[in-house]
Fold:
Amino acid sequence: MEYKYVVGGSENDYYEAAYADVKRDPEAVYDDTFIPFKSRIVNFLYNHHFGVRINAIIDLPGKGIWNRFYLKNDFTRDDNICFVLFTRYLPLVRYGLLRYLRKHYPNCRIVLFYQDLAAKVKGMDPSTVLDHFDLVLSFDQDDCKKYGWEYYPLVYSRVDVPDNPEIPRSDVYFVGKAKDRLSDILKAYEQLRSRGYTCDFHIVDVPEEQRRYADEIDYCDLLPYQENLQRIAKTNCMLEIMQKGGRGYTLRYCEAITYGKKLLTDNPEVSNAPFYNKDFISVFTDPEHMDLTLLNTIGDVDYQYADNVSPMRMLKFIDDKLTGRA
Structure:
């Protein structure tokens, strides 16, 4: 590739897994440390400089002094470097982070990747993002059409998943925040349970008064991603219920493709996806009327698509866009 890559990511355990392929590549860096200080004193100063409470009263000046600590790498000033940033870096644009990068790496290019709906991301008006970045990617096709961005689905890497003997096998597995879809999640659960299927459901951020079937469903604050992978390993099929207004291919597809699992989804767009296979994916519009035929079939699940979801494939896509090869 023309560029060497620095991915400004997250220490979140999901992203650690999803971008594992980048960590394995000698021409790329995955920087997951947003506050990269070993010193407690420096961390204290940083946290107070960016503290929400005090900055709500007065926007403390001088935040640009921290720019040199972000996105650390061993590449040289003269290298062709491409910084691929998660949206968590957007608030730092106003403090000169992009200007700093372009000054110290004059041959660099800077790309932004939306891995959530633009309406849910804070830090910059999405209609102005293209004014600051060389390229903007989003996993959501509607956002791309609205703002003129490039579409790219979520990426994923395969990692070793240690067996957890305490996790039982299940027919259908669901994990996710309730958001605006709790009613549909519970309807799907009722249908699956009424037909005799073993369900492994974990729903996040549900008020106590809305927790139906609380003795059967795990209502939790957070499920560690390692445990999520272990539960995926023990299930036959995964369930996806989309956020209202969402149309992009979510993490569930990446997991199903990578670990060879069937998928129930209410996203009609998946029927047009290059990885779609009617033997492995069942699309429904109403959780009370799902076609569950695939739950009764036996055989290996192989989408023949795992290499295509690797983050290294995304970096190649970016490289081609920046060099005019695509």
Remarks:
- Residues 4-34+70-157+310-322 form one domain.
- Residues 208 and 274 are 40 Å apart (CA to CA).
- The chain has two domains: 4-34+70-157+310-322, 170-308.
